[in-house]
Amino acid sequence: MRILVFGAGAIGSVLGGxxxxxxxxxxxxGRAWHLDVIRRHGLRISGLWGEHCxxxxxxxxxxxxxxxxxxxxWVFVCVKAHQTAEAAxxxxxxxxxxxxxxxFQNGLGNYETLTQAIAPERVALGRVIFGVEIAPGHVRVxxxxxxxxxxxxxxxxxxxxxxxxxxxxRESGIPARATTTILxxxxxxxxxxxxxxxxxxxxxxxxxxxxxxxxxxx
Length: 218
Hints:
This protein has 218 residues and is α/β, with parallel strands linked by helices. It has a single domain, classed as 3-Layer(aba) Sandwich (Rossmann fold), CATH 3.40.50.720. It is 35% helix and 26% strand. The chain has seven helices and twelve strands. The strands form two sheets. It has an eight-stranded mixed β-sheet, with helices on both faces. Strands 4-3-10-9 form a four-stranded mixed β-sheet. α1 packs across α5 (159-172). The longest helix is centred in the last third of the chain and has 22 residues, at 182-203. It is globular. The two termini are 32 Å apart.
């Protein structure tokens, strides 16, 4: 598959890096401080899912550097929630006739923002509940509480492309599965974060340390 990661920070770099490592054509669109190091030395991935150096990535720092109507199969939206509207506007000009979008973002309301610029039948959502630390050219997977979930509100995106994305993620080494209740999963993550953020602050420990205890898992 041809995949564009729009917002290649911590999560986006892990997703894109693993998929590129398994043979997919991946473009990372992100910040120069991160991509410049990747351009020179490759993307280093470490942590729970092993040590890897990925060198077969296409890199871009501006949406205008990407060809309009490029034949991407999937675009992963991995920007912060407050950047979603800007990303959606830029993406609308980049989508090919069959391109689908999957938003891997925290918070609520991203789907509604994306579908103001992109047809709902082209937009899926991903719930990510693994943790990543980022440094220039390097991402480290620190904790994984559950599989990545992929789904579309009201099942507007076809089952076949969703199943294909899940299969590609799993084959790359990222645990994933499809769901018909993605909005429920995203709400559950918000509640989960509300609980763990407070505990992490009060106890002065990381999520990873909290999740060593079964009572802290979803």
